[in-house]
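Example for tutorial group B:
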């Protein structure tokens, strides 16, 4: 059925929504309400004795990385390693026993951060060696830029010779890849050649390494371009020697990136980039988990995710029965996906849902939402291109809304409508805005800002998903369809743990991850593909997808310890999390419980047992 014939059917199924007739609070609130009512709130210390130390580390590190800007060069790796090791020695000189609760938290966080950064340098060094056969000229590019950074005088003729040498090395690397690819395709060990000629030594690589090389080369070219433009035109002799070889090298680099992406990685011109990713293996995951203060193995986390999955499965069936579908949760989900608003009305829906969520948590005294946080958010529509990797809402300071546009293909429009239905939106607007990410951004900018250095998805995403737990328990879903919407996301977060860890363990391919999301969560295939592409082709950390559910489970355990036991109110608990700043949840626990950590503290909190 063509789109013109299908649209009446689609919009006949769209749910009628009564939009709020009253103006939003921002239209009626007095500007004076945005000023804190009591100055005492701004003069009470909320930080630790080590706040300035952490700020100094962050600023100094940023200065070094700005100067040693070729992030993969041997010089960059050496200088940053020396910097972190020197900071470890300085931190060891701190009079730890004199520190209070917050100072000990910052000490522990900075010590852990330094260990983690050194491990990342080890990982980067190993990957750089792995890329060397594909990018033999990388250090020469770095040397040119770093010589300029040191303000050393340039030798124009020598620079031109370097550019020419890089062209030769590039040609040899490409010839080696072509030979390796041909041998791999044919199974041949070599070909007969004329006497006196030399064949390129075959270079055998993988799509993952080639993908990494293409991305690395993109960054290196920025450094090369910056180096060239610094001298070109300002030094006539430099331009005379180097314009032609630089142009020739640039053209060769263009062709090489294209070759890597199309012939080795498998990117088809005019089509979406294949999902490649860069799995870090079990040892890499263990290092990441140690940094996040999670005392579980990847396999144990998958077990926990499956346990939460079982809870979701039972709730899916309960909601499906209430909707008249028996145990057929997929049929119930299909019904929920047809409850969407017509094009043009999604911003109205988002507005109403945002206001409803603020009222819901405020009426129940669950958390403090200052007027400025409640009012100062903006809504933007996401481009069709961005929706390929972000098929749903994104949030923070603003909320970015995914919804069909008139330029999309028919199938894309239908899938976008279904993937952003009213019930799904009801479970995501408060996650992205209030009391979710927007409230986090408000506090991050105002209290304990130095702890942004220790920001973690277990705090960022765990907090937002925790509110999905809370609002479920407190009756925010009004119907079985609303519960279906919330269950979709809760199941999705279980699935994220399973597919992302299995990918990084080398057990699952991206296609298996997509199929899993479609079959076990009920994703549209387009949104499942976008989700997996976002997870592996983007710049998310390896544990980012794990952070949602595990962070929420940590907060649930902590809520049980402090609120269910009667030690704290809901509001004091939630305000305390925000006021402590961004950090692993085990440190949030120390902050809320006012625990004086020992100097040799090791995370042991088994929050999910």
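The residue assignment follows.
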């Amino acid at each position: 059925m063509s789109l013109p014939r299908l649209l009446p059917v689609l919009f006949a199924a769209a749910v009628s929504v009564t939009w709020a007739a009253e103006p939003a609070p921002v239209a009626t609130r007095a500007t004076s309400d945005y000023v804190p009512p009591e100055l005492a709130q701004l003069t009470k210390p909320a930080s630790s004795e080590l706040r300035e130390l952490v700020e100094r580390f962050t600023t100094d590190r940023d200065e070094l990385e700005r100067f040693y800007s070729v992030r993969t060069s041997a010089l960059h790796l050496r200088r940053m390693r020396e910097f972190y090791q020197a900071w470890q020695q300085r931190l060891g000189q701190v009079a730890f026993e004199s520190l209070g609760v917050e100072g000990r938290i910052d000490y522990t966080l900075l010590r852990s951060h330094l260990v983690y950064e050194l491990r990342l340098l080890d990982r980067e060094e190993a990957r750089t060696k792995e890329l060397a056969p594909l990018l033999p000229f990388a250090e020469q590019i770095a040397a040119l830029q770093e010589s300029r950074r040191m303000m050393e005088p340039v030798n124009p003729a020598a620079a031109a010779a370097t550019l020419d040498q890089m062209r030769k090395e590039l040609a040899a690397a490409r010839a080696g890849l072509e030979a390796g690819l041909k041998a791999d395709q044919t199974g041949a060990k070599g070909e007969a050649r004329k006497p006196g000629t030399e064949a390129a030594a075959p270079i055998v690589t993988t799509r993952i390494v080639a993908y990494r090389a293409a991305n690395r080369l993109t960054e290196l070219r920025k450094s090369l371009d910056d180096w060239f433009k610094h001298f070109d035109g300002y030094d006539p002799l430099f331009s005379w020697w180097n314009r032609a070889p630089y142009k020739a090298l640039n053209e060769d680099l263009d062709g090489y990136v294209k070759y890597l992406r199309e012939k080795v990685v498998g990117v088809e011109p005019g089509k979406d980039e294949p999902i490649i990713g860069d799995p870090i293996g079990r040892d890499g995951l263990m290092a990441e988990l140690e940094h996040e203060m999670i005392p579980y193995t990847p396999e144990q986390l998958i077990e926990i995710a499956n346990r939460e999955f079982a809870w979701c499965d039972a709730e899916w069936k309960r909601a499906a029965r209430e909707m008249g579908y028996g145990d057929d949760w997929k049929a119930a989900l299909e019904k929920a996906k047809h409850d969407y608003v017509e094009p043009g009305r999604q911003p109205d829906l988002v507005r109403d849902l945002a206001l409803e969520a603020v009222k819901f948590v405020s009426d129940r005294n669950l958390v403090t939402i200052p007027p400025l946080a409640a009012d100062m958010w903006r809504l933007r529509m996401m481009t069709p291109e961005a929706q390929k990797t972000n098929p749903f809402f994104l949030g923070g300071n603003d909320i970015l809304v995914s919804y069909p546009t008139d330029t999309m293909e028919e199938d894309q429009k239908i899938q976008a409508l279904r993937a952003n239905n009213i019930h799904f939106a009801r479970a995501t607007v408060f996650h992205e805005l209030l009391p979710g990410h927007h409230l986090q951004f408000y506090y991050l900018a105002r209290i304990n800002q130095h702890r942004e250095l220790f920001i973690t998805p277990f705090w960022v995403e765990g907090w937002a998903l925790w509110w999905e737990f809370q609002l479920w328990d407190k009756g925010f879903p009004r119907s079985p369809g609303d519960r279906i919407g919330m269950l979709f996301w809760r199941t999705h977060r279980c699935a994220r743990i399973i597919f992302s860890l299995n990918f990084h363990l080398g057990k699952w391919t991206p296609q298996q991850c997509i199929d899993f999301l479609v079959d076990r969560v009920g994703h549209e295939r387009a949104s499942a593909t976008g989700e997996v592409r976002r997870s592996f082709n983007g710049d998310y950390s390896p544990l980012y997808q794990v952070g949602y559910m595990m962070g929420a489970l940590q907060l649930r355990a902590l809520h049980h310890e402090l609120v269910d036991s009667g030690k704290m109110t809901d509001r004091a608990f939630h305000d305390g999390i925000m006021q402590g700043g961004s950090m692993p949840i085990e440190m949030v626990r120390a902050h809320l419980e006012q625990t004086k950590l020992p100097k040799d503290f090791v995370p042991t909190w088994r929050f999910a047992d």
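The chain has three domains: 56-131, 138-189+205-265, 283-593. Compare this with the pattern of hydrophobic and polar residues in the output above.
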